[in-house]
Amino acid sequence: MDVLLTGAFGRVGTAIIDHLAPREEYDFTYLNRSDRPEYDTFVADVSDYEAIRPAFEGTDAVIHLAGYPETDGTWEQVLDNNLVGMENVLRAARDAAVETFVFGSTNHVVGMYEVDDAPAIYEPDFDLTVDHTAPHRPDSYYGSSKCFDEDHGRFYVENFEYPERFYALRICSVRHEEYDHPYGDAERGVDRGDWERGSDEYEEMVARMKAMWQSRRDLAHMVECCLRDDSVEFDVFYGVSDNDRRWFDIDHAREVIGYDPRDNGEEWDAPPEETRGTGGGGVSR
Predict the structure, then answer these.
(1) Dist CA 238 CA 277 (whole Å)
(2) Cβ–Cβ contacts within 10 Å for residue 203, how many?
(3) What are the backbone dihedrals phi and psi of residue 254, each rounded to the nearest 5 degrees, phi first?
(4) In degrees rounded to 5, what are phi and psi of residue 256?
(5) What is the domain partition of the chain in residue ranges?
(6) CB-based burial of residue 53 (10 Å sphere; 0-12 exposed, 13-18 middle, 19+ buried)?
(7) Using N-to-C axis directions, what is the helix angle for 200-212 and 184-192, rounded to 10°?
(8) Burial environment of residue 204 by CB neighbours within 10 A (0 to 12, 13 to 18, 19 or more)
(9) Catalytic site residues?
């Protein structure tokens, strides 16, 4: 399968590269604004249709991650990167007869649930499940732009011949490899000097990640489930591991695309030894 990955070299893209690119059944091309000589990179900006269009020729599937990635984005920042970029990538996929479109959406399209209920929502006994039928409740211009992108994808698959299938993955908390565990955000804060290990801020970050974490291997597995599927026209799935305290539903992803995550944040009782310097702790797996 020939797969085009846009916005390839961030946290999510590198998880896909690490876990799926070595597989013989996939032939990846990377579309990115900057070059990576070690990869087969097509250098272009998704806000420029003519520049990106050649990258789509001969492609079976697109995994679209390019865009402004943070909740602090202004309207001006998300407009070209997330809205115009989405139209251009969908249009190029349509013109090149790309069958499968996997879109890196975000939990922030329903982020107001967390805003309203944090930090209590991070605790194991909090009674809330948000599933694929929940209405959009964006918490930022970034979240709102992803709402548009999901709906625009649905417009394309229901009104044009291509793409034939659209998968909106509402990704939660995927991190770079060194912080790929439920203590990752807390430990990163320690490394930056934001707080001390064991502080209230540290413990809140741990509680949040034990709910929100999607391991890199679970993220790549979910993407592969979409690439292998031929049953969906349009659907929404939450990108989160099988965490005991998650409030996002994954039963829908299990039933429709066969998502079978391997990781659960509750299985960890400390960060990995190498992130703690000297002293005890460890990982309960």
Answers:
(1) 34
(2) 15
(3) -60, -45
(4) -90, -45
(5) 2-117+128-177+215-275
(6) middle
(7) 140
(8) middle
(9) 142
Sheet holding 61-64, edge to edge: 41-43, 27-32, 2-6, 61-64, 100-106, 165-171, 234-239
Crossing angle between the packed helical segments 11-20 and 216-228, to the nearest 10 degrees: 70
Nearest to 175 by CA among 216, 212, 208: 216
Question: Which residue type does 29 have?
Answer: T
Six token digits for residue 273: 């030894």
Model-level pTM greater than 0.90? Answer: yes
pLDDT of 274: 63
The structure tokens listed for 229 are 């599927």
What are the counts of helices (DSSP H) followed by strands (DSSP E) for the chain? 10, 7
CATH fold of 2-117+128-177+215-275 reads Rossmann fold (3.40.50)
For the range 243-246, what are the long-range contacts, defined as Cβ-Cβ under 8 Å and sequence gap of 24 or more? 243/182, 243/210, 243/211, 243/212, 243/213, 244/124, 244/210, 245/122, 245/123, 245/124, 245/126, 245/207, 245/210, 245/211, 246/172, 246/211, 246/212
Under a CB-based contact definition with an 8 Å cutoff, are residues 241 and 263 in contact? yes
What's the pLDDT tens digit per position in 91-148? 999 999 999 999 999 999 999 999 999 999 999 999 999 999 999 999 999 999 999 9
Copy the structure tokens of residue 162: 């291509």
Query: For residue range 258-278, what is the model confidence (pLDDT) as tens digits?
Result: 999 999 999 999 999 865 543
**Percent of the chain clearing pLDDT 70 (strictly above):** 96
Q: Which two tokens stand for residue 131?
A: 């599933």
Helices (H), 160-215: 184-192, 200-212
State the Cα–Cα distance between residues 149 and 80, nearest whole angstrom. 12
pLDDT reading at 199 higher than 70:
yes
Neighbouring residues of 53: CB distance < 8 A, sequence distance ≥ 6: 92, 95, 96
pLDDT in tens, 243-254: 999 999 999 999
